[in-house]
Amino acid sequence: MNTWLKNGFTISTNKEYLDIETIHKFLSEESYWALGRPKEIIKKSIDNTALCFGVYKGDVSKGDVEQVGFARVVSDLTIFAYLADVFIVPEYRKLGLSKWLMEVITNHQDLQNVRRFMLVTNDAHTLYSQFGFKAIDHPERFMEKFRG
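Above: the chain's sequence. Below: its structure in token form.
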């Protein structure tokens, strides 16, 4: 588990620090991609994810922190990674936290050899393109099975 500190904020991969209530509230009530998602499903997705990144106001090693962001990377840590559920709560946007979070994720030691790193976004192309993400070269090769 890793921890990064910057300007009074912490990013940590320690799942024990995650505030499931905050994550569930944002994803199920404020995100466009997970509206209405039940807390049990969110908890299970976190439990089964290789790397989760919590963003906190304060220093997690000193306790008394507030979770202000989150992201998870579903991956085999070798060939494939999928970035999901990325958010910074509205009150803490425009502070550079999303860029810092993406720096931490894309530079994470366990993700350096991943060949295909994917994500889906409706509105954050500018952010992700700064970290090497681009439109899929051959979208006609990709398929999905969606179950609402």
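The chain has four helices and six strands.
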